[in-house]
Amino acid sequence: MNPRHYVTFMDLSSAEIRSLIHRAIELKRSKGIYEPLKNKVLGMIFEKSSTRTRVSFETGMIQFGGGAIFLSPRDTQLGRGEPVEDSARVLSRMVDAIMLRTISHRTVEIFAEHSRVPVINGLSDRFHPCQVLADMQTYFEKRGDILGKTVAWVGDGNNMCQTYIHAAQQLGFTLNIACPAGYDPEPELIEQAGSCIRLSRDPMEAVEGANMVVTDVWASMGQEEEQALRAKAFANYQVDSKLMAAAAPDALFMHCLPAHRGEEVSADVIDGPQSVIWDEAENRLHAQKALLEFLMTPA
Ligand code: CP
Ligand code: NVA
Q1: pTM of this prediction exceeds 0.85
Q2: Which of 50, 90, 194, 232 is the most buried (most CB within 10 A)?
Q3: Which ligand is nearest to the CA of 52?
Q4: 142-179: per-residue pLDDT in tens?
Q5: Are 137 and 266 within one domain?
Q6: Which atom of ligand 1 is nearest to the CA of 49?
Q7: What's the CATH number where 32 sits?
């Protein structure tokens, strides 16, 4: 039987995603030892830096009675040109699931195509589905189901924004996106999402009445040399208290972290009362435990 993968937010059904969110909330509350993945091993390939993703997956596997192996291209044959296909074939005969953080999304896809075990996308240039699962858990925990609500994305049409486009379709919320010209999400994703999303150039218009406001860095990993250019393009896209005041009075603020205070978000917003970033970060652990349980202990 072919394994299930989590390469994008569209790889699960809406019902499966809702059930994972509720399971994550349940796992977070539960105390005591629960080891459904005893003796199971997660391989973790990181082509880019990480704090949250690495620690949450590794901790989750240990808490579940298993273990995780950190692999980087610098000290594996992947970095010396061993084909991704071959690496997938070999590793998936040894470990029970594989999580990858890659420069190119295509690498995760190729890995999944040749893997005998579940493959999880821990961030690619196009998507970050584990983060958005944790964000959704955070919203459900604080406000209940997100169905019919409005989320405002302010900033770059990047991997996080593109995963929110998927989440809007899967969970039935409206996504208002405000990004500067030249930084839109991929046109095919916009087209697929249809009326679930509204694209504008005006952050104020996007946040108007929104139940949640979310942003991310202006220059993602690998775009460091564009920092100055992007700082100019995004100058009017900072989430500050004036912008938050236009959202619904009980709107939540989220950010996947790491954040740059004074750039994409002002310090008073990210450290203020509407910000739920620390719960959001913690929920990476719980949401991914629900995901690991789902993928690695199929019914
Ligand atoms: N948000 C997130 O994925 O953080 P890391 O880059 O630290 O893993
Ligand atoms: N968009 C950011 C997210 C980091 C978690 C990046 O890709 O660097």
Answers
A1: yes
A2: 50
A3: 1
A4: 999 999 999 999 999 999 999 999 999 999 999 999 99
A5: yes
A6: 6
A7: 3.40.50.1370
